[in-house]
Amino acid sequence: MSNDTTAHEYDIPETMKAWVLGDPHEMKLIEKPVPVPGPAEVLVKVGAIAVCHTDIEVLHHGHPAMIEGQLPFNKEFVMGHEYMGTVVKTGPGVNEWQPGDRIAVEVHAGCGRCQKCREGMYTSCHNYSYRSKGHRANGFTTDGGFAEYAVNNINTLVPVPDHMSDCAATLIVTAGTAMYGLDVLGGLIAGQSIVVAGAGPIGLMFIVVAKALGASPVIMSEPRADRREMATSLGADIVIDPTAEDPVEKVRSLTGGKGVDFSVEVSGVPSVVNQVLHMTNRGGRVCLAAFSNDLIPTDLAYVVSNNIYMFGIRGEGRSAVKRVASLLEQKRFDPTPIHTHTFPFEQADTALSHAENQTDGAIKVVVKMG
Ligand SMILES: [Zn+2]
Ligand SMILES: [Zn+2]
In the chain, where are the structural domains located? Predict the structure, then answer.
């Protein structure tokens, strides 16, 4: 944010290149009008955008993207929600940001008028997908970042620390999801123990953010050796291979038989939900952060008899992205190793398939604008 009175002027073209959804499984590069920012909005020139597993879900099934209650296919819908860029134009009445500001984004701007938004729970907005009621979730309900330009609500912007590259800055929103998960669990207290099941990008972010906040020990359970190595290099104190040893027994033996204070399920593997419950201490807290398409049998008797609290999280609410950006500004952690591959904008479709197939050990695949 700046109050620079000599703000930059940018030439903004009429049209832009954008990757849009055609039929299911189809992404096509078209020319479409550059969007115009309204009140409380800015126009962002996209600098870089990371591929998220959710983008792949949207490409194949449409869901969880919705536009005015409908699936987004063949509506020239632009997906992509983990991007950064530069503010190039402000909407009417906007002075919170100036052209030239370098920003990263969070996804959800709730409608601001429903009870959940009024409570600050804008990722659970009751008017989800209804742009006509003011809701925006770029890449889910409104056009996202696989384009040269995107419109963002002013409340979804966070400043990018000067020392961060464009590609690294796309990871801020992912780190924000981990921060939000820890917030929802009640806030991590230094010296408390945590186990994270699943070393995908969000799981790895839980490791670095928990570590930055002083959790101890920080434990990762992950079947893939390369991902366990990544977790170790990012600061996990202990890594467990659940295919080689019983992860529940291992976590219990590491914690004097009691289990951890906090556990996080981000693997999306149904059987792992019960594992993390059984890894959790009496009175402990469990964060469920992976979308699952299946009904998952769980040992609820264990949850009840041990006073365990379970929390589902969606996205990155309560300005968690802003707070995690502050940790990055202070260089309290370095997420850059999670970014493994880079593609040019013209190959965004290849970038998605690369991320989907985890080609060459891909974790975060980033598309960099020209
Ligand atoms: Zn995402
Ligand atoms: Zn709302």
Answer: 15-171+335-368, 175-312
Ligand 2 centroid – CA 316 distance (Å): 15
Which DSSP string do the residues of 83-109 spell out, in sequence order?
Answer: EEEEEEEE-TT--SS-TT-EEEE-SEE
* CATH code of the domain occupying 175-312: 3.40.50.720
pTM more than 0.85 = yes
Question: How close is the Cα of 146 to the center of ligand 2, in Å?
Answer: 25
Secondary structure of residue 272 in the 3-state scheme:
helix
The alpha carbon of 108 and the centre of ligand 2 are apart by a number of angstroms equal to 10
Q: Which ligand is nearest to the CA of 125?
A: 2
- The ligand that comes nearest to the alpha carbon of residue 109 is 2
Kindly state the percentage of the chain with pLDDT values over 90: 89
Q: Compute the distance from residue 301 Cα to the ligand 2 centre, in Å.
A: 35
Distance of CA 106 from the midpoint of ligand 1 (Å)? 10
> What is the arithmetic mean of pLDDT over 332-354?
96
Q: Which CATH number is associated with domain 15-171+335-368?
A: 3.90.180.10
- Which range among 1-5, 22-26, 138-142, 299-303 shows the weakest confidence by mean pLDDT? 1-5
CA–CA dist 362, 339 (Å, integer): 8
353 has pLDDT over 60: yes
Contacts of 330 (CB under 8 A, 6+ apart): none
Residues 338 and 169: their CA atoms lie apart, in Å, by 12
What is the predicted pLDDT for the residue at 57?
94
pLDDT at position 6 is 54
